[in-house]
Design brief:
The structure holds two protein chains of two kinds. By secondary structure, chain A is mainly beta. Chain A has no helices and eleven strands. Chain B is an all-beta fold. Helix content of chain B is 0%, strand content 50%. In chain B, the strands form two sheets. In chain B, strands 2, 4, 5, 6, 9, 10 and 11 form a seven-stranded mixed β-sheet that branches. Classes of the chains: A mainly beta, B mainly beta. The A-B interface holds A 32, 36, 41-46, 49, 51, 90, 92, 94-96, 100-109 and B 4, 6, 31, 33, 35, 41-45, 48, 50, 55-56, 58, 91, 93, 95, 98-109.
Chain lengths: 116, 115
Amino acid sequence: AQSVTQLGSHVSVSEGALVLLRCNYSSSVPPYLFWYVQYPNQGLQLLLKYTSAATLVKGINGFEAEFKKSETSFHLTKPSAHMSDAAEYFCAVSEVDGGSQGNLIFGKGTKLSVKP
Amino acid sequence: EPEVTQTPSHQVTQMGQEVILRCVPISNHLYFYWYRQILGQKVEFLVSFYNNEISEKSEIFDDQFSVERPDGSNFTLKIRSTKLEDSAMYFCASSRGLAGADTQYFGPGTRLTVL
């Protein structure tokens, strides 16, 4: 069965500092992996996705994530945090090949705070 | 840019009442989904819908829940007899193709409060 683990329910960084949000997954078949962001009182917005092409995936707003099969990880990074990055971030996995219709399995989310 | 819309944004109901949550997916999308997020917990898959029928559902999606696409634009989630534990944020999503490789676009959610 698929699952996603996000380490750290709350991460706080200073403006301009590196952002690192951790995600580990388990999947019985090659996964599709996603990062979504949720700003207060808004829906989920796709940041980036991994679909078995390049292992380093670039997304919107300067975020990127690297798929590491050996570590079953898909950590999200951004070199320099901005105040507008404060939000909740969700990692998700999907297994289309597993007979699923592609429904997403989400992690518990990590709330990112950015200090001035 | 096209977006998924949901109404109402907040619904308050009494336990045992029926509620219908409405979604308008992106117009050329073929796959539709409902997810929910209980306060402080992870987003959970409820059901997927394609070609006018349920294609997959989770164990959460019991007989109290139903989905319908009553016309060419709306996609609804009905809860027949609400329980306190149904209080959550409900998200609708849609995708053009089979999700996984294709992006699921989410609506802003409906916050359901059951008293």
